[in-house]
Amino acid sequence: MQFAFWAILLAAAMPLLWAVLAKSGPGFDNHQPRRYLAGLQGWRQRAQWAQQNSWEAFAPFAAAVIVAYLMMVTPQQLDAAAAVFIVARLGYGVCYVADWAALRSLCWTVGFGVVVYLFLAAAHLL
Fold first, then answer.
1. Signed CA dihedral, 16, 21, 83, 96: sign only
2. What pTM value is reported for the model?
3. Keyword annotations for this protein (predicted)?
């Protein structure tokens, strides 16, 4: 199986990384996790926001990979784009937790650019 399909699984699991960081503080209440998460501050709050954005980024990426595959985008293009997306989204989360806003926005833009690239490649416009 080519890397791009594994990247879908990685992208689906990535929010869990940020969730673990957000919930790693003292006083986490698994009976009311949303209440706990709503009261977070600092880097844990930013980890929660990274988790939320990672879920939002997952669906367009997964759709783009599947559409590009169905439209016979070359495996090399597909795998390279998926790798860039995964690296960009990991960078995004790290930058969010570290509060590096400008670099975080750059990582977001690269990740979204990959989604656009895959759809354009699927349309044979590239």
1. positive
2. 0.91
3. Membrane, Transmembrane, Transmembrane helix
Per DSSP, the residues of 106-124 read HHHHHHHHHHHHHHHHHTT
CA within 13 Å, CB half, 94: 9
Amino acid letter for position 77: Q
pLDDT per residue, tens digit, the chain (126 aa), is 799 999 999 999 999 999 998 888 788 888 888 888 888 889 999 999 999 999 999 999 999 999 999 999 999 999 999 999 999 999 999 999 999 999 999 999 999 999 999 999 999 987
Q: Which residue in this structure is represented by tokens 């673990």? A: 20
Alpha carbon distances (Å) from 67 to 52, 58, 62: 24, 14, 9
Instruction: Write phi, then psi, for 71 (nearest 5 degrees).
Output: -90, 10
Sort 25 into a burial class: Cβ within 10 Å, 0-12 / 13-18 / 19+: middle
Rounded Cα gap, residues 67 and 71, in angstroms: 6
